[in-house]
Amino acid sequence: MDVFSAIHGRRSIRKYTEAPVAASDVRDILAAAMSAPSAGNAQPWRFVVVDDRALLEAIPAFSQYAAMAAKAPLGILVCADLTSEKYPGYWVQDCSAAVQNILLAVHGKGLGAVWTGVHPMKDREDGFRRLLGLPDNVVPLGFIVIGHPAQELAPQDRYDEAKVHWNGW
Q1: Among the listed residues 44, 141, 36, 136, the one whose alpha carbon sits nearest the alpha carbon of residue 86
Q2: How many domains does the chain have?
Q3: Is the per-residue pLDDT at 62 higher than 90?
Q4: pTM, two decimal places
Q5: With DSSP H G I counted as helix, E B as strand and the rest as coil, what are the percentages for the chain, rounded to 5?
Q6: For strand 112-117 and strand 74-81, is the pairing parallel, antiparallel, or unpaired?
Q7: d(Cα 76, Cα 85) in Å, to the nearest integer?
Q8: Which candidate in 12, 15, 97, 121 could, as Cys together with 150 as Cys, close a disulfide (CB 3.0–4.6 Å)?
């Protein structure tokens, strides 16, 4: 799959089969995440892979938009270790780039995923912090729910000329 097919074909998948995600695929997906750019090459991202059924089923209680996690085989919580930042505040951009790489890698593997937001919602941050035992210096940005797709969504051309400005507003 070429890069443009991956970008335009990637869709948010919220329904999954019961098939597990192979550990080798998880490793490849995380390697792609860790290839993202980061401010000052600080790489502040940290990842919590969640495949324990009880943990996945507990997530919707504090993160309503991650309800599909209860029936998914896997999720990855993308976090930032604030003690590893070179340029404070850029962790959001750094971790967001890692998330985008995860989404594209998942799609490239023939899997499906959806990015569910955590930061800056304090209740969601606190929920993941309690559930997964995150230390105080680690902030969760987003939870990526992953599995074998049980739905098929067609690619969409989302280009909108009205949102493009050249050489000024």
Answers
A1: 44
A2: 1
A3: yes
A4: 0.96
A5: 45, 20, 35
A6: unpaired
A7: 21
A8: 15
